[in-house]
Design goal:
Elements: E1 14-19, H1 25-36, E2 40-44, E3 57-58, E4 64-65, E5 71-74, H2 81-93, E6 98-102, H3 105-109, H4 114-125, H5 130-149, E7 154-170, E8 173-183, E9 195-199, E10 205-211, E11 221-222, H6 225-236, H7 244-252, H8 257-270, H9 276-301
Helix pairs in contact: 1-6, 2-5, 4-5, 7-8, 8-9
């Protein structure tokens, strides 16, 4: 174990956008994605809502929004964690730079999502005891979270908030507004993200309920393409992170099996799951090279 000076490294975005129905989560996610640039994929569980923004639209106030080009995968029930993970892997393999997951709520409370899975597991294995069933459901949900966190892409994940209404006084006129409350996901879901933006229905303004970038410390503001550009600039301002090619080269050049083991274990920790197959293949190849002379010698002596 060795402690080193902490430095902020270049990173991929992990952004959650939450809010009640109609608050502009999908549109906001696409605006940020456009600002980030690169190829964009959308995992759509909202019955084709993302594709509604495939053409230019006029925003409130008359401003025209030209959406980015994006590809879509419309996911239907069952909304199991494994199907979300499969979609994330497919987007990585296809070479997309940004994946919008719209929305993560279905993985938790949709048909075939974690709450459904837990109920079914409780009935089948634990005599209806849902508390015990979480021992099997939680690792499946955790695998979905890890797939997002370890992805080689920028991840923008939306989540529905339970909606409540409140009456406000707008210059002497009573007005009913929608308020987004608790996100419909597992408790602590928001802790996994770099930034969490909560949208309000009235005006589609975003307030940061969590922010590690320091970009959203002021008053609530609309999400725009500029939001994505500012986030990208912050992400790119860090120091260079681990280089996959250099790490694979170090594995291939390991002088001993012990050194090889150290390079392999470090590579698995610092590189995303997208690289794991290549890491294992490089490790196995070098291990055979290092042990082959010993195996031949033993064979000759035998």
């Amino acid at each position: 174990m060795k402690f080193e000076k902490a430095v902020r490294k270049k990173a991929k975005l992990r952004l959650a956008i939450t809010g009640p129905s109609g608050s502009g989560k999908t549109l906001g996610a696409l605006m940020v994605a456009k600002g980030l640039g690169g190829r964009i994929a959308v995992l759509d569980t909202e019955h084709g809502s993302a594709s509604l923004y495939a053409e230019p639209i006029t925003l409130p106030g008359g401003q025209r929004f030209e959406p980015p080009e994006f590809d879509v995968l419309e996911l239907t029930a069952p909304y199991s964690p494994e199907r979300y993970i499969e979609a994330i892997r497919a987007a990585e393999d296809a070479g997309y730079q940004t994946l919008v997951i719209d929305s993560t709520t279905h993985e938790w409370s949709g048909t075939g999502g974690c709450l459904d899975i837990n109920e079914q597991t409780a009935r089948a294995k634990f005599k209806g005891n849902t508390w015990s069933a979480w021992n099997e459901t939680t690792p499946r949900h955790r695998a979905f979270i890890d797939a997002m966190l370890q992805s080689s892409m920028h991840i923008i994940a939306t989540g529905r908030s339970k909606t409540e209404t409140a009456q406000t006084d707008d210059g002497g006129r009573k007005k009913v507004v929608k308020l987004g409350m608790k996100t419909e996901q597992r408790d602590g879901f928001e802790y996994e993200f770099t930034t969490v933006l909560d949208l309000v229905h009235d005006g589609h303004y975003a307030a940061a309920t969590k922010d590690r970038t320091g970009l959203f410390t002021g008053d609530p503001m609309p999400i725009t393409e500029r939001t994505g550009q500012d986030i990208l600039a912050w992400l790119e301002s860090g120091e260079e992170g681990p280089n996959a090619d250099k790490i694979l080269a170090a594995i291939a050049e390991s002088a001993t099996v012990e050194v090889l083991k150290g390079h392999f274990e470090a590579a698995i920790l610092v590189l995303s799951t997208r690289h794991h197959d290549a890491i294992k293949a490089a490790k196995n190849r070098r291990y055979r090279e290092l042990t082959a002379p010993t195996e031949r010698k033993h064979g000759e002596e035998g």
